[in-house]
Amino acid sequence: MINQTRCPISDSEIYPFISLGPQPISMGISTDAAYNDQYNEMTWGATEEGIVHLMTRIPLDVLYGNSHNSGLVGKVWKLHHHEFAKFISKFQPNKICEIGGGHGALSEIYEKRNDFTQWEIFEPNPTKSSKNKICVRDEFFSEHSIIDKKDCFIHSHLFEHLYDHGSILTAIHRSLTDDGMMIFSLPNLRSMVKRGYVNALNFEHVTYLPEDLVEYLLLKYGFHVLEKQYFLDDHSIFYCCGKKTPDNTLFYNNKKNIHIVTDYYERIKKEIEILNSKVFSQNSSASIYLFGAHIFSQFFLTNGLNSSRIKNILDNDTFKQDRRLYGTVLNVVDPRIISADREPVVVLKVGAYRKEIIDQLRKINRNVKIIE
Asked: Among residues 35, 55, 36, which one has the least CA distance to residue 45?
């Protein structure tokens, strides 16, 4: 475990203010026995300036030792990739480096519509082999990476995973041509936290990044915003940034962040109590399921949602089906299993993916009862 006692952004001391106790260290699935699962204390802290960090961090090679297929399944994610590719198309980059994204979804979509000479991907856990002009490098991108100059760096839902934004942004800045751009998508964490989505902050999303902090980091490390676009009200923000001189004189201060994160976890605890009450009020013969073999279900189960009435976890990812959700005793099954139930009950807490999943479940079984 890494004990983060100083802020990598401001170098100020971090003071703990929330401890959630032991949490599973992987969002994925497992074929091992549950007693082999590993847990790590989750403690959140903040600087006096109001920068909120996870203080108890997992080494990157352990945390990302295996892929959990995030961002690959579902209509919302497919739409995100198409809209982000369309956003990138506005700027017509030619020599591209993508950090993360080894599944190849974004590069594949972009390649169908646009011409470019090179697309190089840094990905420590690639799930797609190189083809045509797309080259995958099986490694983390870091300040030590050797790379020729690019006119565009791209990353999607990477920024919130970084342990040290400064070192990565500095390396990107150094590797860009003078007129180069950085184009990226990141989750709209302020909106997600406000709505109580449990995938906003976790062992992978280690810093609370509202827009004012994101844009402070960009200016500090040599980027200015050329264009900004929202994808849905509660999902992502797209940025296109130009290169400028870094500004080390800037100072960040927003103490409201501490209160926002504190309130976020307090509301989730109350929500779990309400869910337990709803689950146990169901008919004793009802088949009850929990949707999503990912952080949503895992967090609720680890933090108090009673699993004794829950039969299985539903998930559309065939890779996860017939396996166990890490950190729980529940197995993952195809959602179509509810078609055999007279009146199935599904506990649904899936953030921005709510509507598409409700529509799907009702098509499978129009008598399904949704608990939220």
From this structure: 55
